[in-house]
Amino acid sequence: xxxxxxxxxxxxxxxxxxxxxxxxxxxxxxxxxxxxxxxxxxxxxxxxx
Length: 49
Hints:
- This protein has helices at 3-12, 36-48; strands spanning 18-19, 29-30.
- It is globular and about 30 Å long.
- The chain has 2 helices and 2 strands.
- The chain has a two-stranded antiparallel sheet with strand order 1-2.
- The mean pLDDT is 91.
- It is mostly helical.
């Protein structure tokens, strides 16, 4: 998956990540995890993709 597509799929699952559109960093996502529950939601979201 490219970063934009991955971000869109995670958002569909309720996981909010930040995709950067600037060319030099367009292949990256910023992911901040606060609670253990948010960490688990991210892992589940990624495993579903």
